[in-house]
Each structure stands twice: as structure tokens, then as C-alpha cells.
Amino acid sequence: MKKFRYLILLLFIVIIFLYFYHKDLKDDFYDTINHQFLSHNYLEDDKNSYSNFSLAQDKADKEVDRILDGILKHQYDMDNDIRNSIELVYHNALDIDKRDGNGLGELNLYLKDILSVQNIDEFIHMGIKIENDLKVPIFTNITIHNDYKDNTKNIVYFYPMTLAFSSSSFIYVDEDYMAYKAYIKRGIIQLLKLYGYSKKEASTIANDLIGFYEELGNHSYSNEYYDDISHYYHIVSLDEVSSIYSNIDMNCYLMDKIGEYSGSYSLVDDGQMRFLNHYLTNDHLENLKYYAFVQVLSQYASVLDSNYMEVVLSLNHSLGGERKSIDELSLDMVLDMYSSTIGNILNSTVVHKKNSKEIEDMFLRIKDAFGIMLQNNQWLQDNTKKEALLKLKNMKLVIGMEEFREDIVVSGDTYLSNIISYQQEMWKREVDRLYDGGKENAVSESVVNAYYQPLDNSVHIPSAFFYLEDDIKSDKYFRLGYLGMIIAHEVTHGFDANGSLFDKNGNYSNWWTEEDREQFLSLCDDVSRYYDQFEVIGGRYINGKKTVNENVADLGAMRVLVTILESDKANGNDYREMFSGFANLWASEESEQYQKLLLLVDHHSPNKYRVNAVLSSTDQFYSVYHIYPWNGMYQKDRVGIW
User: Fold this and answer.
1) Which CATH superfamily is domain 106-322 in?
2) Fold of domain 18-39+355-397+471-625
3) What pLDDT, in 10s, does the model give residues 19-71?
């Protein structure tokens, strides 16, 4: 009898445990599924985040380090000029004593010359020389990119200017970025003091520069404006560009940069260009001189001596909370410069060893499921639905390196001269693409990521993606929720507010009826309002408008996965495995500082809400876990587009 009472007591404890366990799932699915991950303090002092993606990236980085070591030891059959160039840059980059001895090197002459100009004509002449020799933007930020309306050719884009430390003008006028403006101002002061200015002089110059940046920001489009990809495509003639930038002979200016080009120009921010032209007067000469001076010094600080590198490292730490060593910063640059060579080796050693067929099969199943969703859609008219189905049918999957591009052979005895040589050769290649229609550089093969490319209607899976496969469950529905979510997310990007502006061939083309487009954008607004309600940290909320395209992709991807399970006539346990895999995918830990930064700059919602907000708008989640109005995961007003 006593033994029976113990069994009853044990059963009661189990029931109570299961009740509260499921209650937790119903209140916060993300935290409960990832309890073990989140209960350990994995975040190191010098890191700003820790996640399943960072774990996979660590593995990819170790493989990249092994490949680089093999190149240096001549273990790979490769072009000798490239190998010698990698060796040269590697040793120059990591020889900090030599870099400290070299100081500002070749930059010294440019910096002295810019400070010594006597009038605006001399400034314009020197500014153009800096742009052409050092590839530092002073007057324009020219980029060679696919013509949105005809992706078989490339055209010239005048992109918004980047300012000190590659900052954008909007941060100087947006109240949310005031702390980051202060960090950049401090970085400018540190650069000026290293050059030899007193603290008082440096502060005065920095204050004047920040004032200039603020004026530029007030004449530029907002950050939100650039979230709409169509705003990057504004075709103008050379005569129009010349009339706006009337203080510079744009015919000669562009001839020096891109040769005898007769194609199209896209002017992304005409207000910014008009202001810069207006500012080019002798009255502003002193500020312009320091503007160009800081443009050069901040762009090259990371490849100069250890004192200048420390300014960059300190600024990065202030902005994002991550602290790298001088050697790590130097090595990152080397790996970026030779990412094609290293990526090609990584592609051959990783992709062929991993289960790429699983990814290919998932992609096909996801496309089929998305097709079912489109066929069953109740608000699309037949013409729009037909075009959407054609676009989906044409969408292709690219696994690993699509096209090998020979890396650049550099010259010079110092790291700085290597970088200058590299920048000059890179620009020559960009100009060549303007005339031969060549593709631009893709995302590095060593980055754990996936992406949708609207300009050729394709989903790309870099080689390092396969490190996400390590150590995850073998259950097919768990893997669908984990790996399949990423692929379905990228497929859905073809039908978000930006991706849906491009047709089945990847050209910028309106394939929507007016009524359908209005309905689609109205549904996007619903998604934005839905995400606006979520408070992340200390009174800071998700910006639903900024994150709308990523949220649409997350919601659509979950609908795709549910459609696959419905087609399979999956049971409740299958759904639980899929939902768990999905939640586990986004398990992460971030510092408070980094969370605040991500809320400002990241177009994705924080990982917790990528899980909970999506599941709270998924009807099948409610039925599987019996979610009721008193549960934390319950949302009365649910959203979704596809």
C-alpha cells in the first residue's frame, strides 16, 4: 500500500511537471524550447552574440584558417602569382612592427596636400586625385551594378555618400542614432590627435565636421526611404548630372573614372548631390579640407599602424560590443581580399562532402508548397497569380560557388601599398564590368548564410551554410523546421515588397494589377503593425516598417512548411518536431548593447520574435499545442500574406 502511494505521488509530480512545461511552451515557446541553450552564459566578454549561426561560423572559420595555412605551405595546386600575392599580403598585414614603423606611409603626401590647398579649385583638383588614386569617396559614391530593368548589362549608380568610418548621413539627423554619432565624433577626434592636433583643435574640427554631416543628412533621404529598393533606380542623363553638380566638370570627372561611357546613370539621392555641389565654395574651404582629410584617414585607419587600428577597434567595440584583436582585424582583411581563392577551395572540400541533395530536395518541395499556396490564394487576380507562378517556376537554386573569379595580384613592400594597389585594381575590374556585363562579386563562400538574389531570381547557398547541418537531429521534420525554414524564407523573399518588384527573369518589372498591388501593400502594413507591438528591451520596440520584408519572409516560410506537413498528412508529433527545429534554429544570446544596435540597423526582427511572433500567427501551432486566450503565445489578430 505504501509503495502504491509513492507511485501515485510520483505520477502526480509528473503530471504537475508536464502541466507547467506545456504552460511554458504556451507562454513563451522560444524560451522554453531553447531553455538549455539560454540558461548557460555562453557569451564571452569580447563577443556581442552567440548562436547556432555563430557556432557554425566558428567551424567555417577554422576550416578557412586551415585552408589559408595550406596555401602558405604550398599544399594546393594553384596559380603561383596568386599564392605569392597571398603570402605577401599575409606577412605584411601581420607584421605589426613593420606597420608601426611605416606610419602613414604614402597617405602622408595626400593628407598634407589636401590641407595645403588655397582655394576651391585646388580642393576639387586634389579631391579628384584622392578619389582616383586612393578610391576614397569625396564628391560621389559611384558603384557599378546591374541595370534593374535589363540585368544583362551594368550601369553607373550614384549611391549615397559614406562619411567618416563608412557611416551614412542619416545617422547624424536621426534621434535614434545620437549615441552612435557621439562614438564617431570621438573616433574622429582620436584620429586627429594621432596625426598631431591638440585635443582642443581636434574637438573644434570634429564639431565642425559633425555640423557638416548634419547639414548633409538634412538634405538626404531618410533611412526608411532606402528600404524600398525601387528608390535606388532613378535614371538620369549625363546632362542632368552635370546640371546638378555644376561646380565640377562632370564630363572630365567621369571620363577619368569610367572612360567613354554612353550608358545610363541612376541617381539615388539627388538632394545630397545638390547640397554637396552648393557647399563647394571658398567660404566652406576649411571644413571641406578636413572633410576630405578624415575621409582618407578613417577609410585607411584599419590598415595603418597599431595606434590607428586601435581607433577602429575601439569604435567597433563601442558600436556593437565586440572586441577583436589587431591580428584578427588584419587577418579578416586578408581573407576578404582573397575570398574567391579560399572560397573555391572551401567549395570543393565542403559542398561535395555534405548532403547537398537534402537541400536540393527541400528547395523543390518548398517551391511545390509555395505553388499550392499561390493557387489557393483568395485575393490575387488570375493575371497576377499567373505571373507569380511563372516567377516561382523560374526560381533556381545555386549551391556553392557559381562562378570562380580570379583574385587580385597586388604589389608593394608594405601592407598599405598592398591595399592601395588592391583598391585600384578592384576599380579597374568594376569598370570592365560596365562594358562587358560581368557579374558583381557574390557573398563570400565562407559566410554561414543564404540569400535571395532578385536580379536573377535565385536562392544562393554558400558553402559555409552546410556547417549548420552539424549536430542537429536526424528527424526529417525537425530538419525541415531548421534548414528548410532558411530556404523557404529566401524563396519568400522573391515575393516580399522588394523582391516582388522583379519578374521571373530578374528584371525590374511591374507584373501586378493595380488592385492586387494595393491589397498586397495593405497586408504588408498589417504585418508592420503586428510587429510594432513587441517590446524587446527597456522600452524599445521592433520597428515593424523597417523589418517588414524579413517578417513577411518569415511568416510566408512558416506557411510553406505547414503546407508541406499538410501534404504529408503529418501527425501532431511531426508538427512539434518542425516547430521545435524552427525555434532551435534561432537560439541566440546577445549583449544588451548589441540588441540595441540590432534594433536600429538590422532589418530582421530579434530572433526570439522571429519564432514567437511567427508561431503566434500560425493556426496549426494553436491546434497542436492547444493555445487559448490566457496563454502568452495567443494573438487575437494574426497576420500573413502568402
Assistant:
1) Neutral endopeptidase , domain2 (1.10.1380.10)
2) Collagenase (Catalytic Domain) (3.40.390)
3) 444 458 999 999 999 998 888 767 777 778 889 999 999 999 999 999 999 99
